[in-house]
Amino acid sequence: MGYPSSSIVDNGDAYIVEGDVRFPKDMQVPDSKLSTEQKWTGSKLSVANAANVRIKVDASMTSMGAEITSAVNQWNTSGAAGLHVTVVTGASYDILIKDTNLGAGICGQGTFPSGGAAGNLIQINKAYIAGNSFAQRQRTITHEIGHNISIMHTNQSGGLQITGTPITDAISLMNAGQCNSGATVLSPNDKKAVQWLYP
Question: What's the whole-model pTM score?
């Protein structure tokens, strides 16, 4: 997908890229051309899967239920008619969100989609972001959900250009390296990107 080897860390069952993107070693990697503009992975959710993305909240994350609800609402009000995200409590789900100690400097990690399904895991470094404002905590969760539905970092290389988006977007919630300092709502271009992916 065009990442420099210096940004890839082997973490046992997965590779961690740019600190917050998790690639399971058994995932399908799409064939794609590289781009330096606002981008996606080249692997998106099937129509049926995008219409019903189910997030299960692990017991370790229940104290951030309001932040998760706010993050889900951002994606559901993005204007992407083909995308609907819900929080579920049953045994059937697409994405598990759980607390994981990721070390200092890493707020969360998402997993890119594969085979038409959403990335199956979001890890949030709850202790690390606990002192951040509500808006910044929900930003971290919103950002990681973005990865799980195929949206890459706006301000870094790799991936496929999303039609109609600019080369840079200073107010994109999907910019990397902005834990506790970045945009707390989806930018107009973030919304345009998800609308293009899931019309």
Answer: 0.83
